[in-house]
Amino acid sequence: MNDRDFRTHAPGYWPEATPAEWNDWRWQMRHRITTLAQAEQHLRLTPAEREGLLLTAHKLAFAVTPHYFNLIEPDNPNCPIRRQVIPLPGEAVVTPGEMADPCGEDGHMPVPGLVHRYPDRVLLLVTDRCASYCRYCTRSRVVSGVGEQELETDFEAAFQYLEEHTEVRDVLLSGGDALLISDDKLRRILARLRAIPHIEFLRIGTRIPIFLPQRITPELCAMLREFHPLWMSVHVNHPRELTTEVRDALGRLADAGIPLGNQSVLLAGVNDDADTMRALIHKLLRSRVRPYYLYQCDLIHGSAHLRTSVAKGLEIIEALRGHTTGYAVPQYVIDAPGGGGKVPVSPGYVVYHDKEKVVLRNYEGRIFEYPEKPGDTSAVVRPGAILEY
Ligand SMILES: *Cc1c(COP(=O)(O)O)cnc(C)c1O
Fold it and tell me: Which residue among 123, 125, 203, 335 has the greatest number of ligand 1 atoms within 8 angstroms of its CB, and so is best to mutate?
C-alpha cells in the first residue's frame, strides 16, 4: 500500500477517546461538533465564522464528525476543509439567480422522494440526514431537518412506481446520505429494488466514506456485496480529505467489488486551482476511485462566496486532459438551472467540423485534421451549434 501523502489525523482534538470509541461510527455521530461553543473550543474562529454559525443554523444544520473536524487547521481561516463545513455569513445572502431547488427536483417527483428526470434512471432520496453538512448542499431545502421543507419519501409508492415503470433500469440511492441508515433498513430497500426484474443497476451516492469512514464496516460491505451490480459515487473535494482511514474504507468497498466513482464540486478557495485538483485526482486513483464528475457549484441560496466562474472550471480541465492519466480526469458538468439535468462542458477540442473533415486541437494546442467518412448522412453538429427540432 502506498502511504505517501496519506496520513491519519486521529485523535487530534479528542485525545481522551479510546481507539475502540474512535473507530465506532455511533461514537463519532454522538460526538459531532454542532454548536458555536464546541467549534470555538478547538478553532480560532474569525468574526465572520462566528456570525455565520449564528446566522445559518435555521437554514441548514451545522454538524461535523470528529473524524472530519480533525482535518481543520485551527489557525487558518482559509483552510479548504473549514470552508466546506463552517458556515460564513454569505450563506444568509441570496444573490440574483440563486434558488432553493436549483436542479428543479421538486418538479420532477412523480412520487415524494423519487426524482425521475432522465429516461432510464431515477434518484431515490432515502433519508434527509448526513454525517456532516456541506455548506453548499444542493438539497439544503430538505436536508438536515431544520429547513423550510421536509423530505417525505413515500417508499411504498416509490417501489410501486418503479415496478410499473419498466423503462427504469438504474436506481441511484441518495439523500441526505444513504449510508447513514441502518444496515437492516438499507438491506430491505436494496432487496426490494433487486426484486424488480427490469432494474439492472443500483448505485449509492454518499459522502460517508469521507465524513465517517468508521461506518464502512466489514458487515456493511458484506451486506452490500449481496446486491451486485452495485456501484458507488463518493464525494471528495480536496486531497487532504483522503486520510489513511478514508483510503482504507474505500479499499474495503473496492474489495467488496463495488466500483467507485468520485463526484467533486468546484469550490472557490477549496479546489479551484489545477495543482489541488491534480493532487486530488491522483490520490483518488491511488485509492481505487475513478474521478467521475466535477460539478459546477449549483445556484443554491447563499452560495456566491463558494462559487467559481465556469471559465475557471474549463481552465482546470484544460490543465488536466492529456497532461495526466485519462482515468483521472473527471467530466466537468453543470446541472442546468431549473431542471435541465447534467450538461457536459468541455474545452473546445473540436475547432471545426463539416462533411469533409473535423479539425482538432490537442492538449498542447496543436491542430490536426481527421477526414470525415464520405457519404455519411449523420448530421454535422458544429461546435457551439444549437440543434433545431
Ligand atoms: C445525477 C442524477 C442522476 C444520475 O445521472 P448520471 O449522469 O447517470 O450519473 C439521475 N437522476 C438525477 C435526478 C440526477 O440528478
Answer: 123
